[in-house]
Write a structure and sequence with these properties.
single chain, alpha/beta, Rossmann fold, six-stranded parallel beta sheet, 22 helices, about 15% strand, globular
Length: about 550
């Protein structure tokens, strides 16, 4: 026990010390009077963790989620009670559906005022129960280290996810003696040798295997999984917004199974005689609305996931393996390859589908986004981090870009708009010096684009590509399918995005033609400043595969 843990400390300082003891590196916060003593405690440990001042609680939560997703370690968001917690709830939902370790701390009313509907009072256990893995409230300062340590354990164990911790106001101000607690060394679940042997036997008997990768893997595990899949020449898909998990440049990468998946790939996936679902929940986007497989398991599925409760939740696997994903990858690396070339032609056929979809069509208009994204591939650094917002624009990069081994791509699998810009700022702060590029629609950018102020305040340097078609494109697409020529509430009036970033002191570019994009991106990257590149896109080209006129024609045939 150190002297600091023997001496009485303010509860707010014990909270800050507990975060340090748990190895937390980043705290993203919008300050509030409900946790003033914690803010003072964070000042006392400013040399041990980085405190980022954000402009909106949703931005703070999304920054923390992005850092957790990229590092595999929980980052922290702090918000004030009531409205602050409500604003931050979207980040908790992102972390839950994306299986990201994250902690959200909420300043709370004095517990002596509970159930009087005190100013900004909310019962956070009831509010966050369906959104988080665990919700607790700390009213006794002596229990702070215990409960924060458990919060980290819950956030990082099994299927990772968010934990919400409310901090009562008077608890933070009370003096207490509490012993700091470090991380626990816990042995994680390993796959049984019998299960691995059975999986390999199933693979050897297969003619048309297909791997679907999801979840969060360490860099080492991604490499081990890549090598195993390459050695077997198994065609590989990635789940919705999980492009980071497998290099698209490899010949056995065949595309993504998510929103905007290639219909030809989906059709082929239904012909597979063995699905290797590694790390994915096989949720709604990956399963194409639960239509990709039948629930009885006529197509055998090997489902590998860290939480046994998720295995068989929707699809009954032929073999379920509950294991830590990194351990699973390490165990695979020890196994000799299956001596079979039965599916070599199958893999070539699926790769051919991918490459046909990757080729840039001759879209109408002077700005061909497919060609521009092909150019972007050659302009990115080998360790670039890409973040994406949600919307129809977000289907362009997965279709027309191939990631290299050291590059990362993250986005909200729950489809949360407003994620991209805060995520890019969080990534830039967590990995200073790495190139960070954000893909955002004009709708999503205007939800959290003000967080660029946070980038300037703390030295982050993201490059934000704003795809501006003057509308909420996804909803307009659905409107045109169901109610042709009756758009309602989807048109947008936008600012001059170039002047907006220049008002912050950053670098702005306007791109209206394909030829303008590469030079504009090069200038933005060379500026060393936070940058916005506005791409004026054709609103008629509503998706990568359809125009509004084509949607109308299809609707007329129904």
């Amino acid at each position: 026990m150190t002297d600091s843990t023997r001496a009485p400390r303010l509860g707010g300082h014990i909270v800050a010390d507990a975060l340090v003891a748990q190895g937390i590196s980043h705290v993203f916060a919008v300050p509030g009077e409900s946790y003033l003593d914690v803010l003072d405690g964070l000042y006392a440990v400013r040399d041990k963790l980085t405190l980022i001042t954000c402009r909106f609680e949703a931005g703070a939560a999304n920054m923390a989620e992005a850092v957790g997703k990229l590092t595999g370690k929980p980052a922290v968001a702090f918000v004030t009670r009531g409205p602050g917690a409500c604003h931050a709830a979207i980040g908790v939902h992102v972390a839950m559906q994306d299986s990201t370790p994250m902690l959200l701390f909420v300043g709370q009313i004095p517990f002596e005022e509970t159930d009087r509907e005190s100013f900004q009072e909310v019962d956070y256990r009831r509010m966050f129960q369906p959104l988080a893995k665990w919700v607790t409230q700390i009213d006794d300062a002596t229990r702070i280290p215990e409960l924060i340590a458990h919060a980290v354990d819950v956030a990082t164990s099994g299927r990772p996810g968010p934990v919400v911790v409310a901090l009562s106001e008077e608890m933070q101000r009370r003096m207490a003696v509490a012993t700091d607690i470090g991380r626990a060394d816990v042995a994680v679940p390993h796959p049984s040798p019998a299960a691995l042997a059975r999986m390999m036997t199933m693979l050897a008997a297969s003619q048309r295997p297909l791997a679907i990768l999801g979840g969060n893997w360490s860099e080492t595990a991604r490499g081990q999984m890549r090598d195993w899949l390459v050695a077997h020449n198994i065609p590989v898909t990635v789940g919705f917004r999980r492009q980071s998990l497998y290099p698209g440049v490899l010949d056995n990468f065949v595309g993504d199974m998510g929103v905007g998946a290639d219909p030809a790939l989906v059709a082929k996936a239904k012909q597979s005689d063995l699905i290797l679902a590694f790390g994915t929940r096989i949720g709604e986007p990956v399963s194409q609305g639960y239509t990709l497989f039948d629930q009885s398991g006529s197509a055998p599925i090997v489902h590998v996931y860290p939480d046994a409760a998720e295995i068989g939740r929707v699809y009954r696997p032929a073999l379920g393996i509950a294991t830590d994903l990194d351990v699973f990858a390490a165990e695979l690396a020890k196994l000799p390859p299956v001596a079979s070339a039965a599916w070599a032609g199958w893999t070539r056929d699926l790769r051919a589908i991918r490459m046909a979809g990757y080729a840039a069509p001759q879209y109408q208009g002077v700005l061909n986004l497919a060609a521009a994204l092909h150019d972007l591939e050659g302009l990115l650094t080998d360790d670039a981090i890409m973040t994406t917002d949600a919307g129809n624009f977000a289907t362009w990069a997965p279709r027309f870009m191939h990631l290299k081994d050291g590059q990362r791509f993250i986005g909200p699998t729950n489809g949360a708009m407003g994620y991209g810009v805060p995520a890019a700022i969080g990534a830039s702060l967590a990995y200073p010096g790495r190139q960070v590029v954000c893909f955002a629609g004009d709708g999503g950018f205007m939800m959290t684009g003000q967080e660029l102020a946070t980038a300037f305040h703390h030295g982050a340097t993201p490059i934000v590509l704003v795809f501006n078609n003057g509308m909420y494109g996804t909803i307009r697409m659905y409107q045109e399918r169901s109610f042709p020529n009756r758009p309602s509430a989807t048109a947008l009036t936008n600012p001059d995005f170039v002047r907006l970033i220049e008002a912050f002191g950053g670098h702005g570019e306007l791109v209206t033609t394909t030829a303008e994009f590469a030079p504009a991106f090069a200038r933005a990257a060379a500026s060393g400043k936070p940058a916005v590149i506005e791409l004026r896109t054709d609103p008629e080209q509503i998706t990568t595969r359809q125009t509004i006129a084509q949607i109308h024609a299809a609707a007329a045939k129904r």
